[in-house]
Beta-ketoacyl-[acyl-carrier-protein] synthase III (Labrys miyagiensis), 323 residues
Amino acid sequence: TLRSVVRGIGSYLPEKRVTNDDLAKIVDTSDEWIVQRTGIRARHQAAEGEFTSHLATKAAERALAEAGLKGSDIDLIVLATSTPDNTFPATATTVQANIGMTGGAAFDVQAVCTGFVYGLSIADNFLRSGSAKHALVIGAETYSRILDWNDRTTCVLFGDGAGAVVLEATMGDGSIHDEGILAARLRSDGTHKSKLFVDGGVSSTGTIGKLRMDGKEVFKLAVGMVPQILHDTLDDVGLPFDAVDWFVPHQANSRIIHATAEKLGLAPEKVVLTVADHANTSSASIPLALDVAVKDGRIKKGDLVLLEAMGGGFTWGAALIRW
Ligand code: ACO
């Protein structure tokens, strides 16, 4: 059985760090309100002239270095973003050129905050079917460009950043002890569009638009919908929740994450939380959090890691990886 095994991981945050107190100078908010409602203390912001492809390329180069591979070894890039450099071409092809990858295929995936889980699942299908050997899966965002800086209910919640993994198609024995992606599930439901969307776009308004969100509704839906897909993902391989070593959810809000972990009976010390330092970086949040937990020694080879995300669309998904 072919499995998609993680050979390297890397991430990148823009230099500029913006604290809650910094935001309190531009909108009517406070560090206390933001920390209490969201757990966020700071976020990073791309500099002028620094695009999603720049963040993505840096994260990809770090993941490649860890994997001991060159850009020319990669034959697939799946880049998840809802803040691409341009309407077209795909940001993935810009990254392809930047890393010196001359063959294979590169494309973007748009699943908002679930983008990285979508990207992983897509790449996993390419690798397990033998259509590619080495894939880069990247989540990269510059949400600072689509925030309404006059709307305190949304502008305090998001940040910029990127994360990437290198996957390699590797022969396993088909058991739950194999390294690599053991299961992945994707879902979407287009009926909730009005609760989280950008009010512009190429075909509708001809403008970029700004992010609009009904925070309370999103909160309710997130806590309500996510547990089922996690149960289904573990059921796919017949594993119980207490087999999970690390839960690495999309980092939108520490209250959503705690409520979800509690519902599943996952111990708080198994939950990787980076929302305090990164805020919500959409498709970049999971690979950023994974990279932190790998580099600080929490996630080790052989650990069972459960990923989960939920975002605009609505889209949601989960993946189970033997690291
Ligand atoms: N600073 C100070 N006060 C604020 C701010 C702010 N930044 N934002 C809102 N308020 C005020 C509101 O105006 C309201 O005042 P009022 O009572 O006088 O009307 C009060 O605070 C309470 O507002 P609520 O919206 O009721 O606050 P709530 O407890 O629901 O928290 C929040 C809002 C944090 C957005 C919460 O609903 C939430 O976390 N929702 C989920 C959002 C999310 O995570 N989205 C992303 C998930 S999907 C994805 O990642 C794309």
